[in-house]
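Let us work through a complete example step by step.
Step 1: write down the sequence.
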Amino acid sequence: MLDAVLYVNEIFGPTVQGEGPMTGQPAVFLRLAGCNLACRFCDTPYSWDWQRFDREQERHAMPAEEVLDAINRKAGLVRRLVITGGEPMLQQDRWSALARTLREEGWSIDVETAGTTAPAPDVAVSLYVVSPKLSLSGNDAKFSLRPEAIKAFRDMGASKVAWKFVCKLPEDVEEAMIFATVYKLPRSSIFILPEGRTHTAWLGSALNVVATALMHGVAVSPRLHIALWGSDRGR
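Step 2: predict the structure and record it as tokens.
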């Protein structure tokens, strides 16, 4: 029974996943409100930064049944839901039943997270895309890097978890690869995401980091949604 209340920022789609291992795949997005970090490169601060944005306008308390109806109304033929944020794992207990319901209806469920909260073992998620926040994010590592949570995701295996690192310079890639070595992450599941909130900025970062990424044998992710729609919300 869907009796939880979720704090929602926006529900939109169908659109395409713009980055990471599912780039180009059609999807509906459920963006939840709230975050436990404050990344200086965040491109969705309206979902959590209540100093700059009006919480009453950006955070909506919605019963899970209402969220399910909104997702199905937008879906068309699409059967992939991306739960993102903010930090969606802060509401894991609120959306878990919703995820199970959608899986039973034939949906794939992807979750985008910074990886500070370990996943519950019984949640019906197809893929976690974990983006640990390293030095470039500006967060204090004691808050942004939680070893037990990171290990819990890693131990789910490469078929269930992909790792995405935001990088602007070669040294950011090197830091990401040190992290990957320490936590024994499979190279095949790692994606370097050049930082940039515009396509021009993304391209500049990509030119900076691609050689280092190739040297380490890891993928470089596009930001397809930025190339197509810039900073437009709900795209």
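Step 3: interpret the result. The radius of gyration is 17 Å.
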